Amino acid sequence: MRNGNCIVEIEESLSFIFNFLKKKKLLKKNFRQFLDYILNITDSSYIVFDSVFFHPNKPEKFDLNKLVKKSKQKNVFRYNNSYVFLFNFKHHNQFKRVFIFKNSKFNKREVEFLKSIFSFWDFINFERTQKEKLKKHVYVDILTGVYNRYFFENVIPRELKRVERYRQPLSAVFMDIDNFKYINDFYGHNTGDTVLKTIGEILKKNIRKTDIPIRYGGDEFLIFLPFTSEKDAFIIAEKLKKLIKNSCMEKLKIEVTISAGILEIKEGENLQSILEKLDILLYKAKNSGKNQIIA
After folding, report:
1. 111 pLDDT more than 60
2. Model pLDDT for residues 176-222, shown as the tens digit of each residue
3. Digit-coded pLDDT (tens) for 75-93
4. Same structural domain for residues 285 and 154?
5. Is the separation of the CB atoms in 213 and 147 below 8 Å?
6. Last residue of some domain: 138, 168, 195?
7. Are 123 and 117 in contact (CB under 8 A)?
8. Alpha-carbon torsion angle 108, 110, 114, 115, nearest 10
9. One-letter-per-residue 3-state SS of 20-65
10. Rounded Cα gap, residues 237 and 292, in angstroms
11. Contact between 260 and 290 (Cβ < 8 Å)
């Protein structure tokens, strides 16, 4: 056994396994590197990960169906001239199987080690997935599906620094639904919510992946457009204005218009100054008869 002494020293507690993984830098490696290390430490011949061989020393004949059938009875078993260890777990939200083949028997310590280390790897991946989901919920407005005020306050400042660093144009659109209070009062809050959802869908489907749509509050939306001049931002805003009007008329049979202010952000500006300027432009659009875009 290439690293036999290491197996003997491994305790069964999760805290030890965590320190072990961390020490070997396996927590920062991808899953295939992790499997490669397992192959090495248990002196195994090869690994089959979800029906894909992970080692050049694979057998000439291999029947996955028979192997799966045998694995239903126990997780350590004999197959042809090899001994097999099986572990079922979730990887990137999909159920996977790992078969580890060895020419000699797995001893008890090796089996416990493999169970522990795979279980802990599974736990770590679960934790990562949960954190990603939580982060998404924290930053995303539940009703509209676009980013929320918290995202604006915590992430946009970084975008402003990036603009300063690389001297790239960045424009912002600040839009507000015209007569939204009347829509809520006359048609009901469910209709008002549907209008907000529709606008969120339109923004997500009709802007680039690099653009940042935000529900700033109530019926106000902010869109940050990296690498976009004020002139191009105006064209984008006009397109969105028409889409919102047409979509709401088609879906709800009511006329919904927006007013918006557009600003190309200058170097050195902060969130407060940007919002103040956009607010003035939006106010002008409202006072110009609504359904207007002012730059």
Report:
1. yes
2. 999 999 999 999 999 999 999 999 999 999 998 889 999 999 999 99
3. 787 777 778 877 776 656 6
4. yes
5. yes
6. 138
7. no
8. 10
9. HHHHCCHHHCCHHHHHHHHHHHCCCCEEEECCEECCCCCCCCCCHH
10. 10
11. no
